[in-house]
């Protein structure tokens, strides 16, 4: 009997007439394509093993990619444990015996830990809940609860194994118990429910017709040129060979079974996009240009499953892991999906036959926010384009801006709505997208500034606002 995921994939195929990730239209550029694939394999192996990459030129071509490499190394440590915790090649690390015992405890039907997991999995599969976000929230809460149960109360020899692991630590080491238990819970809870969750995702997006809408727009956008995506002439998008490489990574991402593995591969995709995109005079790829290039990449790779994969990671990964760069780039993927869903409609509304973040129609959409930030040192206004998910709160937007703008005292800053030059402070729980839509027809901007700063805003309308 076919599994639920096979049935889900067949339903998607019936809708799309193709697989979730279509690479057939990408033409590989002979030797260059083979070279890039070889580089990708080396880069991927390096991320998996946390060792030094043989091809440093490929990895260090841009400063942003060095940041991503550090994030990927940290992610590898979360999955496999810190290399310094490995005592030798033959012996295991201090946390390995505790991880093995926790997995063994989950197989003991007499333990409360095992019974709780079995009951939760059975109840989840038998439930009629049709909203994947609700199912993932329940999974996330259950995994956090089981981790707290083991740490606070323990069961069997858990605390004894924990003390043994602590005794093996060096004086300058520690055991990341939360990260270790997170990987265990993914294996015990996420893995058995993965096929069930994918089926719910497909049913949900099929009912809402989001899959059909995205597939239709991706087919249309796939035939368009880079300029039709609003990519500036000075920015060179990834080549056909690079797109083939990225598509292979996206295929691996879809095949990966656990959220941490998916996030690891997703950051590898982002790093490859940065490496494969040419910028004028060796500059780094800016936020505005990156978002447009990401829309281009998702369309050209035929990544129709992008929304499901993004939501899968968002819903099941530990929230603290999504702070900073991983969360920013995952939000960018969600934004790219929302833009692609309205690609054909946006082309018609813009009147120019292409997308443009700087136009008057896109900044008000639910996938991006344009925020002005006053530079009090030189009296100028900077504009930042932020990828946001639907219903993102003011608090989350402020956190993203503070991180990207490297604000060291974010408690002194806030987000304001400017309507005809009049400031209104947005509360933490408000939705900036809704605030902009409520001011439709008026000259409305969003500004991130010091709460105590006294600023006279310009009467002339800023470009893109």
SS class = alpha+beta
Form type: globular
The low-pLDDT segments are 9-19, 22-63, 82-91, 358-364
> What is the CATH C-level name of the largest domain?
Mainly Alpha
Q: CATH fold name of the largest domain, please? A: Glutathione S-transferase Yfyf (Class Pi), Chain A, domain 2
Helix content: 55-70%
Radius of gyration, whole Å:
24 Å
Strand order, sheet with most strands: 2-1-5-3-4
Overall pLDDT level: 80
Question: What is the total tally of β strands?
Answer: 5
Q: Output the helix-strand order.
A: HHHHHHHHHHHHHHHHEEHEEHE
Walkthrough of the structure:
The chain folds into three domains: 4-63 and 204-350, Glutathione S-transferase Yfyf (Class Pi), Chain A, domain 2; 79-196, no CATH class; 368-450, Roll (Ubiquitin-like (UB roll)). It has helices at 4-16, 30-49, 56-59, 63-80, 94-105, 112-126, 132-152, 158-167, 177-207, 210-222, 240-255, 259-276, 287-300, 306-316, 325-341, 343-350, 394-404, 432-438; strands spanning 368-375, 380-387, 413-419, 422-425, 444-450. Helix 4 runs antiparallel to helix 12 and helix 12 (259-276) packs across helix 14. The protein is globular. It is built from 18 helices and five strands. The termini are far apart. By secondary structure, it is of the alpha+beta class. A five-stranded mixed sheet has the order 2-1-5-3-4. A hairpin with a 4-residue loop joins strand 1 and strand 2.
């Amino acid at each position: 009997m076919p599994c639920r995921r096979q049935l889900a994939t067949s339903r998607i195929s019936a809708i799309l007439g193709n697989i979730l990730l279509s690479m057939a239209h990408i033409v590989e550029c002979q030797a260059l394509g083979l070279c890039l694939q070889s580089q990708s394999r080396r880069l991927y192996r390096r991320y998996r093993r946390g060792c030094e990459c043989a091809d440093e030129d490929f990895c260090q071509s841009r400063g942003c990619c060095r940041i991503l490499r550090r994030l990927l190394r940290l992610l590898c440590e979360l999955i496999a444990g810190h290399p310094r915790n490995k005592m030798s090649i033959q012996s295991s690390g201090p946390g390995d015996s505790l991880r093995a015992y926790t997995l063994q405890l989950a197989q003991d039907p007499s333990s409360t830990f095992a019974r709780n997991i079995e009951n939760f999995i059975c109840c989840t599969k038998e439930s009629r809940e049709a909203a994947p976000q609700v199912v993932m929230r329940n999974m996330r809460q259950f995994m956090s609860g089981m981790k707290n149960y083991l740490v606070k109360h323990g069961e069997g020899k858990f605390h004894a194994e924990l003390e043994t692991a602590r005794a093996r630590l060096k004086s300058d080491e520690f055991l990341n118990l939360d990260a270790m238990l997170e990987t265990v819970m993914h294996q015990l809870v996420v893995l058995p429910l993965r096929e069930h969750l994918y089926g719910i995702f497909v049913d949900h997006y099929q009912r809402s017709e989001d899959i059909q809408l995205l597939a239709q727009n991706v087919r249309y956008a796939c035939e368009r040129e880079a300029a039709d995506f609003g990519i500036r002439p000075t920015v060179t998008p990834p080549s056909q060979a690079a797109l083939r490489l990225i598509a292979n990574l996206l295929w691996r991402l879809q095949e990966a079974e656990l959220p941490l593995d998916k996030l690891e591969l997703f950051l590898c995709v982002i790093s490859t996009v940065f490496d494969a995109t040419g910028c004028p005079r060796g500059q780094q790829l800016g936020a505005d240009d990156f978002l447009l290039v990401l829309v281009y990449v998702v369309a050209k790779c035929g990544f129709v499953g992008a929304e499901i994969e993004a939501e899968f990671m968002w819903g099941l990964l530990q929230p603290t892991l999504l702070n900073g760069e991983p969360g920013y780039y995952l939000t960018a993927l969600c934004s790219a999906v929302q833009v692609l869903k309205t690609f054909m409609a946006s082309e018609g509304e813009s009147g120019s036959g292409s997308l443009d973040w700087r136009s008057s129609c896109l900044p008000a959409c639910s996938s991006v926010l344009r925020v002005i930030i006053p530079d009090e040192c030189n009296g100028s206004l900077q504009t930042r384009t932020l990828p946001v998910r639907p219903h993102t709160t003011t608090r989350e937007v402020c956190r993203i801006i503070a991180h990207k703008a490297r604000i060291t005292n974010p408690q002194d800053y806030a987000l304001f709505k400017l309507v005809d030059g009049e400031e209104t402070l947005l509360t933490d729980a408000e939705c900036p997208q809704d605030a902009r839509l409520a001011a439709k027809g008026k000259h409305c901007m969003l500004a991130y500034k010091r709460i105590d700063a006294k600023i006279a805003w310009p009467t002339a309308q800023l470009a893109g606002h």
